[in-house]
Amino acid sequence: MSKQLALVIDLNVCVGCHACVTSCKEWNTQGAAGPLTDQNAYGADPTGTFFNRVQTFEVGEFPNTETVHFPKSCLHCEDPPCVPVCPTGASYKRAEDGIVLVDYDKCIGCKYCSWACPYGAREVDGEQKVMKKCTLCVDRIYDAKLPEAERKPACVLACPTSARLFGDIHDPESEASRAIREQGGYALMPEWGTHPANHYLPRRKTGKRLHADELERHDNPLKVDGRLPRPSPDAPALDDVTSW
Amino acid sequence: MSTEVKTTTCYMCACRCGIRVHLRDGEVRYIEGNPAHPLNKGVICAKGASGIMKQKSPARLTRPLRRKAGAERGAGAFEPISWDEAFAMLEKRLAAMRATDPKKFALFTGRDQMQALTGLFARQFGTPNYAAHGGFCSVNMAAGLIYTIGGSFWEFGGPDLERAKLFVMLGTAEDHHSNPLKIAISKFKRDGGRFISVNPVRTGYSAIADEWVPIRPGTDGALLLALNHELIAQGLYDREFVARYTNGGQLVVTDPASARHGLLAVDEDVEPDNPLYPQNQLWWDRHSGRAVLSHTPGADPRLFGSYRLADGTRVQPAFQLLAERVQPHTPEWAEGITGIPAATIRRLAHEMGVTARDEKIELPIAWTDCWGNEHQTVTGNPVAFHAMRGLAAHSNGFQTVRALGILMSLLGTIDRPGGFRHKAPFPRAIPPSAKTPTGPEGVQPGKPLAGLALGWPGSPEDLFVDADGKPVRIDKGFSWEYPLSVHGLMHNVITNAWRGDPYRLDTLMIFMANMAWNSTMNTDEVRRMLNDKGADGEYRIPFLVVCDAFQSEMTAFADLVLPDTTYLERHDVMSMLDRPISEFDGPVDSVRIPVVPPKGECKPFQEVLIELASRLKLPAFVDAGGARKYRDYPDFIVRHETEPGSGIGFLAGWRGADGSKALLGEPNPRQWEMYEKNNCVFRYELAPSYRYMRNWNRGYMEWAQRMRLRRYGEPILVHLYSEVLQKFRLAAQGKWPGRRPPPELAQRVATHFDPLPFYSAPLETLATDLEKYPLAAITQRPMAMYHSWDSQNAWLRQIHAHNYLFVNPRTAQDAGIADGAWMWVESQWGKVRCMGRHSEAVEPGTVWTWNAIGKSPGAWALAPDANEFTKGFILNHLISDTLPGDTSNSDPVTGQAGWYDVRVRIYPQ
Q: Is residue B857 less than 8 Å (CB to CB) from chain A?
């Protein structure tokens, strides 16, 4: 089976710090997919191109609330709906590694692809008027000048909680595949049949079960100080009234 | 096109990660975490990855600016001047003050990681009026824990999540520190650790906690007392640890008639080796049934009971007094205060106690304690805690933090694997031996200050007051109002200087603190005071110098603006004399080395201080003949020694003439070069036997003394019972042989200097009509912004261009406020208009917002219609620095600003 590169994002440890958001922008704006322009950078309603954003939402009612930080970028679908709708062939999926890319030279900014994408992962650059999106840092992951350990997307290297795993999900032995398999990795909106390559790992809870007898111990330190005394032999007992 | 990669240290927040900066044709193109750096191990955060945009900010100041003649302060009308003119102006003014009354000059800095130099400058100048921002930030955390366990969180120590099994985070603490804590929490969770967050709000790290325990703000003290109650009631404390490593077994004189009431009983026949830290306290030995010298071989102290010494003095173990103190503080009692169900509190205590007791760690590391006992292993009780501003920024925070230190100690987790671990140069003695002068005679014209501007009082004799008990410092630090204000009280400075209470200043120099906006409690009043003139037509604070890299609300009020460099443009040190980046396993310090030249005429503040110190001929900066000693800051860093020949300098790495010595050694002219070659960081690994139990570890103490990290080597017993506090209380009760507080403060000192932790509602809560203002209002710092610094950053402001007030939906609905609607939030001090956002992640009695997103129009070079002005807001407008009765809204022990204590009401616009 051919290679399918992807991100596996562990929601169990993501704290929503946005490191992935700006490190992505920083790498890509100066790299092959750049620039990622900004509009009204210092004015009203500043906006700009980001390949990756963190959405935060709440689940449940107080006090049973979960706050979920949800980083989202192009999911590099195995069957990407953005590709067939592109009238110029600018959107394409690479056979060799499954990365979905946009050829800016062919893109006419018609936005069909962003309408087709059910995940809202594509953004038109406000200045260049072409569609831009996550490239999985395709200009770094094959760069032989970089040490092997650094041939990963910028967001993966930046993430302080290592919540972002990167690898080939068609290789069952990859860290990414193992995480999906063993930790309940799931794809977004599978009902759309897009087969997103990126997966998410769910929250996992660690609890502590206490047993009543754990509070009753022969070595309770209160005994040392006479705080759990045995009853005095003089205290009333059955022996006072019964001879059986 | 040439590309190169340089290493330096980030400063997009105070975390100090190692970074690699990629340059193309000399221009910064990419900044990434340095994988070879011990602090961040290659990761970087949202701020760090946006450092490139800081270089491009339109708010950069690039030339020294003088307020235009005739222009009002705050109008922001300036004219550029040369550095020569700026220095000449400062030299003349400062020299005149130094020759007549040095305390007329005050230096306050937002940054508290450059204190080794800023503090040296102030001390050499001779002014007592110096501090960083700690009094406004988290001094309660530093003081509360250092006076209890001899160390504290963040730079000084932290949770050992590598080995912990249970991690409890109390209150907001996301930013201290940032990336290392994120790395550690993630690993901890993946290793199966259990993470509990106690916080009114569920965001950030709390979002990934296994359990969220919502609590009402300012009530953590009640929770902690109840947890201590339950641990003692159930016998879930580590008795051996308490007996040997705390003062729990030491006998306290409990005889109200005695002059020594509440002090530790001592064997007066034993002459202490070191009278500052005497070791002649007594135990009641449970084997022999009599009083013996503390830590007598073979003895084991009673922790409970009441005894009489041979002379009839009534004594009780400190632990007995603690047990009596927490006895009424049941989980049911705490439920009514905290809003946490009693059953939850009880379960939390049981989890902590059972985990500490039953999941013990034994490391095969032999060590010897200070009393000569040899141990084959190091034991750990794997329950770790972390807390910062959430506990600290309340006027009852000092005693709350004391209660936390005691909880950590009852569980036996101090400097042990899986618990709390110190970072060099901690642990320090309790209290640390650094002291301020003790009276106004310590301030003399033309002379350095006769002591440090900030110190650690151990008794009323250490206060910095005059014969009438009145303060010497402008912020009233180390006076009877705030005796243990160990970080100073930046938040008092402008109000006091404006009032002329205790006296007037001539020049106030502010470095990197936005005191005209978000770094102050009473923003509107402070802005008015800064611009206020006396009857003579002169400004009441005559001369205001502000040094910053960016145009801000504060720079607008300056008479003289000094353009600082950014972190990528300067040399800097993260010094062992200050707050280094030490790891649990040993001292670590680091440097910044410029990767690009300063923009325009920007000059690092360090260079400004070296230049001024040289011009003013401050003794440490000139040779015997009065000639300038240091060419510049890098030269100063290399050659300066704390005393001639001391071998102690700002940097601990690569000392000695050839760079072969660590921590101690003569100056090395190639020291910068060696740091540069080593990722800008120096790391020293302690021998394994010196890495744990350092409060009581003989080997570590001897090593630390040899390396001059410590002057003394006495063991540092945890102060479950604080004799230091009791000395102040005795003074307030008229029973102390020395200094006594002025009568009007006696009751306040007697109440708050309780040697055992207690809970009382924050001062502001007590001074508020809670029927009218029922809600608590607090702030948090978003992870993608560092206070007010980053609104001028084009990328970061796209994440937070404006803020909302987060309100529980039930609370909002009761007030008739729709999600996203404009609303008012009002305290007894003021009101502000904002947009409300319904949130299920906040307890119903609390509203909150992100800190310092709202800006004052015109600041930070943002457009007039920027969201920060039109939609953003800050809560500071609702907070007062003064409470009814003219008392300060600060902790009566430390002076910590109570800026998480404000009470509000909300209503629709």
A: no
Residues of A in contact with B794 (CB under 8 A): 38, 41-42, 46, 48
Q: Does A229 touch chain B (CB under 8 A)?
A: no
Domain containing residue A137: CATH number: 3.30.70.20
CA–CA separation, B417 and B378 (whole Å): 8
* 8 A C-beta contact, residue B59 and residue B794: no
Q: Do A23 and B358 touch (CB under 8 A)?
A: no
Which ipTM value was assigned to this complex?
0.95
Pick B150-425+717-721's CATH classification: 3.90.950.20, 3.40.228.10, 3.10.25.10, 3.30.1330.10: 3.40.228.10
Predicted local distance difference test score (pLDDT) of residue B175 = 75
Q: Is residue A215 part of a domain?
A: no
Q: Test B358 with A214 for CB contact under 8 angstroms.
A: yes
Secondary structure letter of residue A198 according to DSSP: -
For residue A48, the chain B residue with the least C-alpha distance is: B798
Distance CA(B125)–CA(B613), nearest Å, equals: 8
Domain annotation covers residue A222: no
Alpha-carbon span B757 to B760, nearest angstrom? 10
- Select the CATH number that applies to the domain covering B763-908 from these four: 1.10.150.450, 2.60.120.200, 3.10.20.580, 2.40.40.20: 2.40.40.20
Q: Which residues of chain A have pLDDT under 50?
A: none
Q: How far apart are CA B654 and CA B669, in angstroms?
A: 10
Average pLDDT over chain B reads 96
Convert the pLDDT of each residue in B250-278 to its tens digit. 999 999 888 899 999 999 999 999 999 99
* Residue in this structure with the two tokens 């007329």, named with its chain if needed: B104
Is B182 in contact with A17 (CB distance < 8 Å)?
yes
Question: Assign residue B160 a region: left if phi > 0, alpha if psi is -120 to 50, beta otherwise?
Answer: beta
Percent of chain B with pLDDT over 70: 100
Nearest to A170 by CA among A239, A102, A83, A76: A76
**CA dist., res. B231 & res. B874, Å (int):** 41
Q: Does residue A211 lie within any of the structural domains?
A: no
| Predicted local distance difference test score (pLDDT) of residue B2 | 66
Mean pLDDT of B715-735: 97
CB-based contact, B846 to chain A, within 8 Å = no
Query: Where do we find the tokens 């102040």?
Result: B728
Question: Which of 346-385 (B) contact A at CB < 8 A?
Answer: 347, 350-351, 354-355, 357-358
Residues 294-323 of chain B whose Cβ lies under 8 A from any Cβ of chain A: 302-305
Cα–Cα dist B223/B406, whole Å: 13
The domain segmentation of chain B, as residue ranges, is 65-135+433-567, 150-425+717-721, 722-755, 763-908
Residue B1 has pLDDT above 50, yes or no: no
Helices B139-149 & B397-410 angle (0-180, nearest 10)? 40
E-only strand ranges, B202-289 = 211-213, 251-253, 282-285
- A232 lies in some domain: no
Nearest-by-Cβ selection for A62 from B40, B357, B808 = B808
| Any B CB within 8 A of A241 CB | no
Give the one of B44, B842, B862 whose C-beta lies nearest to A42's C-beta.
B862
Answer whether B50 sits within 8 Å of A22, measured CB to CB.
yes
**How many angstroms separate the Cα of A209 from the Cα of each of B164, B166, B227, B497?**
17, 13, 18, 57
The correct answer on CATH 3.60.150.10 for the domain covering B65-135+433-567 is no
Residue A1 has what pLDDT? 63
Domain count, chain A: 1
Mind listing the pLDDT tens digit for each residue in B284-310?
Answer: 999 999 999 999 999 999 999 999 999
Q: The domain containing residue A33 runs over which residues?
A: 5-201
**Widest pairwise Cα distance in chain A:** 106
Q: Is the Cβ pair A30, B203 closer than 8 Å?
A: no
Which of B174, B192, B208 faces A13 most closely, judged by CB atoms? B208
